[in-house]
Amino acid sequence: MQHKGMNKPIILGLNAGGHDTAAAVMIGPELVAAMEEERFTLIKHTTSFPSNAIAACLKAAGISMEKVDAVAIGFDPNAFIRETYLQSALESDERLEFLVRDLDSIRHIHNLANKVRQETGFQKEPLKIRHHLCHLASTYFPSGFDHALIASYDGIAENETGMLAVGHDGQIERFYCETRYPDSLGLFYSAITFYLGWKHHCDEGIIMGLAPFGDPNARVPEQDRTYIDIFREIIPITGDYSYSINRKWIAYHQVRDTWVSRHFLDAFGPKRDYKDPLTRHHKNIAAALQTRLEEVVLHQLTIARKRFGLKKLCLAGGVALNCSMNGKIEKSRLFDELFVQPASGDQGVAVGACLLAYQKMTGIAPLRKNHDFYKGSGFTTEETEEVLQRAGVPYVRPSDLYAETARQLADGRIVGWFQGRAEFGPRALGNRSILCRPFPGSMRDTLNMRVKFREEFRPFAPAVLAERAQQFFQIMQESPHMLIACDVVPEKKSEIAAVVHVDGTCRVQTVRPENNPRFRRLLEAFDAVTGCPVILNTSFNVKGQPIVDSPKQALDCFLGTNIDYLVLGDFVVDKAKL
Questions:
Q1: Rounded to an integer, what distance in angstroms lies between the CA atom of residue 502 and that of residue 213?
Q2: For domain 10-132+347-362, which CATH number applies: 3.40.1030.10, 3.40.630.30, 3.30.1300.10, 3.30.420.40?
Q3: CA separation (Å) from 388 to 9, 415, 549, 559?
Q4: 384-441 pLDDT tens trace
Q5: Most CB within 10 Å of its CB: which of 4, 116, 320, 439?
Q6: Per residue, what are the HEC states of 135-165?
Q7: 381-577 has which fold?
């Protein structure tokens, strides 16, 4: 499908047909917009067709659908049906029953290309690109690494649950694609998330935060084995790059919404309800799960590092959002540097689909360092002020926004910070953030009780002036997307106690002027007032809600919570003056 002379095609990339639906637009080699449908529907991890995201991306790009040269979907429906349903149905009666029960879902998946044409008006055949290949492209091409090992891990794609490749001068060469459903690190992590009382495909990050409170080497009650012993039995390593999930312990491949087997329940006890007490036993299960995930991934990466000699690593797929795992990889010094796609979940395949479609259409590899993922919705000063005027709230436009906000933070006030274009992906990187000072340690509890309404054990992340990062954090590279956990320098823990997790780690965001000029200026102003170059940065939302997208959503969240001070672009609203 190469078009000679088409060096600036306009491409719409989609993640549709599954969860975390999203859209992205490229004009030539440049990614100009990327947005998640959940920001518009207000349903986290939505499966809705990304109609709103498509419209907003086209608006941000300044184009209409008629100008789009190609639509690329990060999923191959026919391959999924053949490989996940039909082939396995030939092998067992259980999988045949599974297919029969899922016929409506199969019809829906098979109709995906027609759905895209129907919803967008695009009349040509959409490009359908394998899901994990899109994950690989989404992280390799913007990494800035000419040569790198590339790894993707998630729940399930067409039938693969992970993929390993090497990137050389813009070419992606896959060398391991044999991990197949139901052998899946992502799905098993989801299964334990469900067993421990949280939502699968949603709350896996909570289990990661819970893990440091447990002990994987403790003995399981009424058994002579430790938690990690059993989890090593559940997920045995079977080769250089292969592992399996012991079918005796799982049920997600047989029955929907069951996840773990009777054997698992016999060994570990009944499923926890969300309202049940959280016991040492539950924490130990989370710890063993996290430990085994890290063991399996590090085993694969260690062998691949020796085989290929590559010094850089690119990560994507939903499992790559596990910043504790990423921190173990960084700390291992297996690689000189790693790049983790900020939208590593399924929303990111919309970007990967764009990038691969561009390469296919032009013959040019879109390999260029691009760590700017502020590609979401943006609003003019006039639009922002109009929201405030309509709401009838008193507001001011300070002469020095940064110094004034820094003073509010230094005084212990909680600040809603809304600037520029929204971040693509689940991390708030300083444009849709709730901020507070990182000290004393009680600030964490204050924020949780007054605004976020989250589990008290969940950690908050620090943003830091990049050149000061190693004064506070034991990390050997920059971390602009808050996706690598690292140890806090021991003598600095008390200075930033509100962002230090129980195990002495944190998920750091390093900020340079070129990453985010406005957030950088606020950090500088806070440092000038307090002598501390660190601010606690969490997403601008409450538990169960997507990150706010628009000025109106930000104002509504501010008015409905105990946030003290709202910065909307150049304007501020002080709750004490309402």
A1: 7
A2: 3.30.420.40
A3: 39, 17, 15, 12
A4: 999 999 999 999 999 999 999 999 999 999 999 999 999 999 999 999 999 999 999 9
A5: 320
A6: HHHHHHHHHCCCEEEEEEECCCCCCECEEEE
A7: DHBP synthase (3.90.870)
